[in-house]
Amino acid sequence: MPQLDFLISAATPFNLLLAVAGVVAGTVIGALPGLTATMAVAVLVPFTFGMPPASGLIALGAIYTGAIYGGAYSAILLNTPGTPSAIATTFEGYPMAKRGDGDLAITLACIASVVGGLVGALFLLLLAPPLAAVALRFGPVEYFWLAIFGLTLIASLSEGSLLKGALGGCLGVILSTIGTAEVGGDIRYTGDFKSLLGGIEVVPALIGLYCVPVLIDMVATADPHLRLKEKLAGYRLGEALRLACGSKWNVARSSLIGTVVGILPGAGGSIASLVSYAEARRSSPRSANFGHGEPDGLIASESANNATVGGGLIPTLVLGIPGTPPDAVILGALMVQGVRSGPALFSVQSQIVYTFIYGLFIATILMLPIGLLIGRHAFRSLIAIPKAILVPAVAFLTVIGAYAVQNSENDVLQMVLLGIAGWGLSRFGFSASPIVLGLILGPIAEAGFVQGTLIGGAKGSVLAEFFTRPISVAIICLIVLSLFYPLVLQRKRLPAMRRQSGPAQ
Amino acid sequence: MNRSTKLFFAAAAAVALAGQAAAAYPEKTVNYIIAFGPGGESDVSARLQEPFFRKLTNQTVAIQYKAGAGGAATWSQLNGMPADGYTIVGTNLPHLILQPLEKDVGYKTDDIDTVYWFHYTPDAIIVPVASPLKTLKDLVEAAKKSPGTITFSGSGTNSANHLAQRRFDKMAGIKTTYVPFKGTGASNTALLGSQVTGSWGYTTVRMMLGEQVRCLAVAMESRHPKIPDCPTFKELGYDLVGGAYRGIAVPKSTPRQIKQQVSDLIGKINKTPEFVAKMEAAGFAMLDIDLARTAEFMARKKSEYEALAKEMGIVRK
Amino acid sequence: MSGRPNRDWRGIAGAAGFVLIGAAVLYFSKDFSRLGAVFPRTIGWAMVLFALACILWAWLRPGAGVEAAKGSMLRRAALALAMLGWALLLKVVGFLASGAVAFVLLMLVANYDRWTPRRALGYLSLAAALLGGMYVIFRFGLHVPLPAGALI
């Protein structure tokens, strides 16, 4: 049976070595704030040119999935997403770490990532062509509504104040308009600074808004940055497994959401983890705990973002359209190797594709022992490092990370300024996540809006274009639900609360 | 030592030094900066060059991406980069000429010193294979019947795709709607999903998407060797030849000798048959405009694009 | 009830700032093309409306909002300034030079333990190792051209 042959060729010693090396390299790079999965893949592409295509792909896939997982480390330990996909991981991961459950969080993130990655790879293996066709049904209008959905989720997720979250999101969207408009070519809000012509890069902004405030507050007191609840023994693997099993619907659902969102070209891990986090919160019996270190939220975010690895490869391999930014790099590498993507890839060059997919499975499974090992060491070392070294070292990483995105000193300056501003805003009650998510979703929403308007205008009715397409209608319903659900919840809770406080009066 | 011996040694030393300098480039890794994001045509052509670069020089090329403002973010900083031949930047036409015409982007066309133009991607009209439009004639007729309803996706505003759309509209006397997308990937997604009628793309798009699309016409002098079934605009009666041109530039202050070395190196890669075969298989069309001829090439292109830009009303200021 | 109601003054102040930002966004959008202006203007208006609603909400609903920052503001400011200086000097003096100075400064700001010669030596050598090691990895391993500047 050919499939068995492919599995065997994926498990050759050379390919296994590549998978291990890739996962290790990817995890380490993804863990460093500022170094993204895209960068990790791009940097290592040249090394793959000397290898047979399938092996090269396995190496790249392993790095990619390792990097997406690695982003959870700094999210949990430093409240800084290591990659944009890990933004939603900070919501629960950091509070867990502050509470003393950092080691549990890391182990949980590993398990969730592995399961998510496997689910995504499974869909890639079995359902790639039909799913790719689904991805094509999403046009500019659908992307617009999807981005709006993401933005409303931000507001509804904001701890404490819906309005403050909305304001943060608006600020993020405005920041995303700075620079040259993709559509129309206007130069907006640059204040005649040439350095702002390219706009504000997401990754430096992300590092600045998340990490710099953490550093600022770290130096303010002598307390250790993180502490441990119990003595550092074992991996708390049993505990983590129990939590994950107890949350299996959450894991399954989040992995599914991650795969589906990953299939949509241009929508990546950040959106996937955000949506599955929001959904986990909505359906959890412990939704009041969210934001204070609820494992379910962490599981949701991490399984979703690793599922985008497999999901994103679907349009990449089937259609020749990158599902996520690292996929664009992988596609380029494929082109150079002479591997043409498209339906033919699955029939004529099936040896390459299937060997690669099985290799991805293997790499994802290997991520469990490797991830746990690296995670434990990362955690141990971070706990042990005195602040006097930790602060400069992390600051150093933020500077390099911001610089390395585009080899631009300007990005470093933007990072620091945004960081200081972010700290200031948090003193007034505005948190970083809405701003960063606004920055990421703004361009998607605007592009979808303008393109939809042009297409609708050509077809005769802009309104019809935006409001009558079936998928759009479905997303609009989701938006309405997500806006009103908190209010409905409030109303449900009120009588229960009154009942509780009744007898006491 | 008498005078003639001294002179001999001096001359020998000079020759040796010159030879050293000439043979020495490149002595270390060369930074190759792409002014766009990964995965695009500029990236792919650079990655195709890379192994040949390595074979010819025993040095590596470090490809970096510095995207922003349609390339202007990098080009406006080009002349501030190290001028020792170890930083080379990919340049694109019509961007280099059109961008400064439209607005203040931080550089002027003459600031950018391209030492070699090594390929272009010819414009092409692409439609999904299931489209009712089978020939260019079908398209023109449909457009004349209902002006403005035919939509074309393309990469960017006032880019090569956009320019081609405007030029052709004028030539054929029709009105179509151009919908800009962020990059070829997004433009292709819209095309495949039939969100738009068709796409103003390049021959590379046709090669990448293969059987899923049909090419209605290409803007070349003669048909592309790898796409023999797609007629040229010229055959069909429209004088449309052009596309996006790509070259390699160095900072203006780079010494002439080093510029020559860079130009020669790129030229050598460009003439390697294996390289040409790979480029053409991907849909690129080769060009060999070396350092000696870039000035004349740019002058020609400048007058061509400036005339077009004025006609289209792109020139603001 | 005793005294003034406990209002989220900071939130109100912040929201007021957002009203100003929104107004600025709207003002500066006057030169944009039709398509280019739609989004910024919509968001600008949304910002103003949300901010006003936020002020209203905070006024009507007593609640303390974010508590005051604990700990040393001086050290916080020092960190912010050190990082700002680092970012600005990066291009001028280069990566290693600015990095070394910034590293040492940040070490001083973040340190709460007593400075013994042993500790100082240990930290400084660690700093040198980290700085040097990272430089090598990024410059030669990952091919990131770190800023050269006047020194290195």
Give an overview in words.
- The complex is a heterotrimer of chains A (505), B (317) and C (152).
- Chain A has 505 residues and is an all-alpha fold.
- Chain A has one domain.
- Helix content of chain A is 77%, strand content 1%.
- Chain A is built from 20 helices and 2 strands.
- In chain A, strands 1-2 form a two-stranded antiparallel ribbon.
- In chain A, strand 1 and strand 2 form a beta hairpin.
- In chain B, helix 2 links the parallel strand 1 (30-34) and strand 2.
- Chain B is of the alpha/beta class and 317 residues long.
- In chain B, strands 1, 2, 3, 4, 5, 6, 7, 8, 9 and 10 form a 10-stranded mixed β-sheet that branches.
- In chain B, 55% of the residues are buried.
- Chain B is globular, with a radius of gyration of 22 Å.
- The model of chain B has no long low-confidence stretch (mean pLDDT 86).
- Chain C is an all-alpha fold.
- Chain C has 2 domains: 9-60; 73-141, no CATH class.
- Chain C has helices at 9-28, 34-60, 73-93, 95-110, 117-141.
- In chain C, helix 3 (73-93) runs antiparallel to helix 4.
- In chain C, 30% of the residues are buried.
- Classes of the chains: A mainly alpha (505), B alpha/beta (317), C mainly alpha (152).
- Chains in contact: A-B, A-C, B-C.
Characteristics:
heterotrimer; B: 317 residues; D-Maltodextrin-Binding Protein, domain 2; 2 domains; ten-stranded mixed β-sheet; globular; C: 5 helices
How are the SSEs placed, and which strands pair?
The complex is a heterotrimer of chains A (505), B (317) and C (152).
Chain A: H1 2-10, H2 13-31, H3 37-48, H4 53-78, H5 87-136, H6 140-157, H7 162-177, E1 179-180, E2 187-188, H8 202-218, H9 237-246, H10 248-263, H11 269-283, H12 295-319, H13 325-337, H14 343-347, H15 350-384, H16 387-406, H17 409-427, H18 432-459, H19 462-467, H20 470-501
Chain B: H1 3-24, E1 30-34, H2 41-57, E2 61-65, H3 72-75, E3 87-93, H4 95-102, E4 113-128, H5 136-145, E5 151-155, H6 160-172, E6 177-181, H7 183-192, E7 198-202, H8 203-209, E8 213-218, E9 243-250, H9 256-271, H10 273-282, E10 285-289, H11 291-312
Helix pairs in contact in B: 2-9
Chain C: H1 9-28, H2 34-60, H3 73-93, H4 95-110, H5 117-141
Helix pairs in contact in C: 1-2, 3-4, 4-5
